[in-house]
Records
---
Amino acid sequence: MQRRVPPVLRACVALALATLCAACGGGADTAPAVGRLAVSLSRARVALGSPVDVSYTFTLAPDAPALGTRKVFVHFLDANDELMWVDDHEPPTPTAEWKPGQTIEYTRTMFVGRHPYVGAASVVAGLYSPESGDRLMLSNEDRGDRSYAVAAFELLPQTESVFVVFKDGWHPAEMVGEGASRVEWQWTKKEATVAFRNPARDVVLYLQADNPSGSANAAQQLEVRLGDQVLGTVPLRRDGPVVQKIPITAAQMGSADMVELRFIADKTIVPALEPGGAAGDSRELGARVFHAAVQ
């Protein structure tokens, strides 16, 4: 029986072969550039574990060919070019719809990984095929593998950010993937609380959450409360999490040493009680939360 090669492995093999062939030929990569990429961060100094807005600008060449389906790879490297974490993604406007000479701009909120490193860091990015792993040539300065250093910033210790404690109403953390590609989340019950030390100034709550369940009984929104105040309502999509930003003023937080927020799901499900659900999963599930950070 023929074994199916995983797409990730195929991509790695394709990239390695392309690099090897270029080396054997002894020449530079002469493929025409399809455009140029510029990346900027909303802050030049970013604490570990904190959110930061990353803006992307793709300027396509006037004679750029049809790109087909491509993804953006975004790798965050330390001062020794060691990979810390990634934020690979599909642009909001699919690359198959990009036109020659067009400028594509968008901003994503990215959560800095809790990597055991502080100091100078850089962002390396580019475009690649999710099927073959082939990378497109850009007019930025090539690092040698069709990846491009597009931004630099400084990583600060996690103590420089507002530390958020997950208190009551949370299930144990779950994760998928390993190393730089690891993704972690926690499910809430009907109601869950987080707390942080009062910074005595206006802040923004960054909340990334969803509910992938297809059940009609699954939660569709998550209400955020501070005492009796409703700070905002977060929609819970089934097709992946989005980041919601909820401003909190110093006046709303008052003078208490600690601030406690409640996350309240409109509905909950128990997988074991759902048709076709996991028979042994008796948890009460509200929202799946990937990040809850205060900036």
---
Amino acid sequence: MKDIVDNRRRIGLFRKLRILGLVMRENGIAWTTCFTVYYLASSLAEKAYGAMDRLRHEKSLPGLNSVKLNAEIWNQWDWSAGGEEWTQSEDWKRSLLKNVLQKHVPPKSRILEIGPGGGRWTEHLLPLAEHLSALDISQTCVDRCRERFSSFENAEFKVTDGSSLEGVDDGSIDVIWSFDVFVHINSREVEKYAAEFSRVLKPGGKGIIHHGTLGGKKGGWRSDMTADRFSEILESHSLAVTSQFKEWEDQGTTFQAGLYEDTITMFEKGASAAN
């Protein structure tokens, strides 16, 4: 159905009316009325979203990604699914764990996780961690993770202000991990986070961050970030981008990093950038 709506411009108005008549004859008034409402509402929504995007960029508006809104949204979120509502499939998650997380997070690492949410990735980071610091903008998430992982003495969970890593010591972190978090963080806050990455990483330490690439043009409440902008910000803080990828291959299957052309960016702090 959605492909018909997305390609509505390929059929002229007169032919649309002819098709609508045929639709009614074959499906009846009730079904056709529902379809017509959906068709017209989607057109209005498309125009509204385009206007929102234009205003956001013209006036430098935060959209739904300000620090205050992020805190409010994720404090009120129903975390009963533990964040698995964003898992594309069990195969996708297994492959991401094998080809990204477990491949690039060495055992006995001092790990910083930004945005653990309900602990979706935390449970897989903990077995690799000498120590795990997990910071979240949501007190709800911090409380949930403290309860869920209370038996782990090598983990601590704290609330962050949405742009800093307060309480994390300089040069103390081997790996920074964040997934499904920076898709909601605007470039203004990413700039502040990047300075903090450079501060807390050890020389040779690395980061693995999943983020948006389309400047908020798709995906409803996504941030204003692009892949190029993310790289520029990191490099301006002496963090070298080592890899950016939107997909990976695993035994003949191609897996996507996210639903809206999201990217996973990997970076490293060089020895020359040591504080």
---
Amino acid sequence: MSFDTYIVSNYLVGSNKMDNTEIEKLENQNEETRKIQYTGGSSYIVSLPKKWIQDLKLKQGDLVAIVRMGQSSLQISPVSKRINKEQREATIEVTKDNSPYFLARKLISIYFLGFNVINISQKDGGRMSAQQREVLKDVVRRVLMGTEIIADSATTITLQVLINLLELSVDGALKRMVLIAKSMHRDAILSLRENNVELAKEILKSDDEVDRFSFYIVRQLNIAIKNEHLLKEIGLDDSRNCLGYRSIAKSTERIADHAGLIAKDIIEMEKPMNSDIVEKITEMSNFALDVLEEACLSVFKRDYDSADLAIEKSRNIDDLEKGIVRVASKLKDINEIYRVKIITENIRRVAEYASDIAEIVLNMTVQQKLRKG
């Protein structure tokens, strides 16, 4: 079962057009010109604007790190802001009229924001309904990676995210997602060849694992984008890549969903599919997974050329699908023809999502490609 219904949409921030004067004023707020002074016979010093210090909640005696950035710039950053270890706590107030799924969506959105401790408590001091408690616990168990229930009473449930931000990088979580999604598709085709309903049912359970890693990645990105020093700690080079990784995780999640759709079709089949058609479907599936493999390798290697090849290769999936549908149209059983079309469409979508992933890699790596040129 997919938890897409729980996923909170990305926030869209509207923007109004600004004239040049307003833009210049905004830029000036983030730029100051200060004179370098020579002191003590061996050191140079420069003062920092008071407002900046206040905005960053720094005080006298706090440490700052000075990093040389290439040949032309220096970066000054507060050491205390590099890795924030504070326990951020949030509370969800529950009323008896709240839908369990409303509460589940709210819980997931708070998890995305990076809170460490989440309290779920009845607003009026009464008890949460059995359905509310069951759905919330189910969400914790199935999709919120690293989250455990540390306190549970009739009126309150307290959750704590125990997994450390630096224990599993974004790349590491994405690799796990890809491996599970590919395994799901291979098992789906195997269950089709063997007419194995039990294996098909197991595939549906694996979908929850993919969702867990997807939600974890979103949480990581949301935390890191607010603290640029965490980006390299979780395996990213640039904050601009956060949106790309969010889209890649979403595409991988959808690839796993299509494996689940194939598994559901196999479970509903009344009789085994034509063996010749199954062989052609297997060939098409292997091709789609090869495209996915190449696209994902381009992500982890930051390889522009490999991503471009994956996009070109994905274009051939349409010919394979048309060939299978053309052969299937000669079958006598209309239901079997329909299932062939549905399964091949789900496989085609794998190649299309792989192509989407490769396109994101092009956008993420094109600047490096230009520098090399």
